[in-house]
Design brief:
Length: about 190
């Protein structure tokens, strides 16, 4: 007789930035889809992956009507403490999953974000003070966002295996959306093998 606790769960989890599942958390002017990035959701679903949505540090800190910020504006003690608190919450989930034999196969985030960028973020020393007309794409640089830095530190501090981090370059208008989705699907295939 089968153990009554056995069921169909695949025990593979992906932690996903809030804005990939709910574009309403993005700063105004940078949403490339109306509600959620369906291609991301469908790809995760097609590969039998569970989704753990991470909180949006920016929305919780400054709200929906916030100005566009670059990393240098967010990179202060108060915001880092806020990101660390949110990261600790996500890592508690990771720790509980690991204890039960689940695998966190990836952390998905939004490249170009000042908080959630994985390989690219935004930085411009000219941003700050009175709002002026600036191009967000001109501020895109190599590097990680504040929240992603704090999340990696929190995972390492708890002695957990650091899953692969992947950033979908949705804030970088120079990258074609079909190319972003194609590269993402290749990444998911590689971590699911």
């Amino acid at each position: 007789m089968a153990d009554s606790r056995d069921d169909a769960r695949g025990k593979k989890i992906v932690f996903v930035s809030s804005c990939l599942l709910n574009t309403n958390n993005k700063v105004k002017g940078l949403a490339r889809y109306s509600g959620m990035c369906r291609e991301v959701f469908d790809t995760l679903c097609d590969n039998g992956l569970g989704i753990q949505q991470m909180d949006c540090p920016e929305t919780l800190y400054l709200g929906i009507q916030r100005w566009w910020y670059t990393k240098n504006l967010y990179d202060c003690r108060g915001f880092r403490d806020h990101c660390r608190e949110l990261a600790e919450r996500s890592v508690t989930y990771m720790e509980e999953y690991a204890r039960e034999g689940y695998k966190v196969v990836a952390v998905l985030s939004c490249d170009g974000s000042p908080t959630c960028g994985v390989t690219i973020t935004s930085y411009d020393k000219n941003w700050g003070g009175s709002p002026v007309e600036l191009s967000y794409n001109d501020a895109i640089v190599q590097g990680k966002g504040v929240y992603i830095e704090e999340l990696e530190k929190a995972i390492q501090a708890r002695g957990l295996e650091v899953p692969p981090f992947y950033g979908l370059a949705l804030d970088d208008e120079s990258v074609d959306l079909p190319k972003i989705i194609s590269d993402f699907r290749d990444f998911i295939q590689s971590v699911c093998q």
